[in-house]
Amino acid sequence: MTEHNDQVKQAYELAKVIANALEEKKGVDITILEVGKQTVLADYFVICTGTSNTHVKALTDEVEFKTEQLFGKKPNHIEGFSNNIWTLMDYGTVVVHIFTKSGREFYKLEKLWKEADAEVIEITDNNTTK
Q1: Which of 3, 8, 15, 39 could form an SS bridge with 44, CB 3.0 to 4.6 Å?
Q2: β-pairing, 94-100 with 44-50?
């Protein structure tokens, strides 16, 4: 059981690094969902909105850069580059979903995973998290 707890703790640390990377690049409505109790797909989802297709791509690039720099991890799989409405980055224990506003409104992941514990990353006026 301790091994599982360590895995979940490491996944949360990765999710926080990803959320911070998204925040640094001005991602909007950043949310960490703890989904490990509802699915075997991942322990956490990190969900973020970009302000344009170009911004979604920049957010994706920043997450990839930061996770490799700080953890030596590359995503196992990335999907959605072609239209940048929704980019999914699979890190195994953490799955990152970066949407345009219309994509996030259409897919409504928070509603789909409403049973998950959510941690909303709030950004203050000086771009620091609360």
Answers
A1: 15
A2: parallel
User: What's the sign of the alpha-carbon dihedral 4, 129, 53, 70?
Assistant: negative
34 Cβ contact list (under 8 Å, min separation 6): 12, 43, 44, 116, 117, 118, 119
> With the CA atoms of 72, 74, 75 and 79 taken in that order, what torsion angle do they form, in degrees rounded to the nearest 10?
150
Please tell me the CATH code under which domain 2-121 is placed. 3.30.460.10
Amino acid at 87: T
Directed axis angle between helix 2-24 and helix 53-71, to 10°?
130
Write the pLDDT tens digit of every residue in 77-98: 999 866 778 999 999 999 999 9
Residue ranges per structural domain of the chain? 2-121
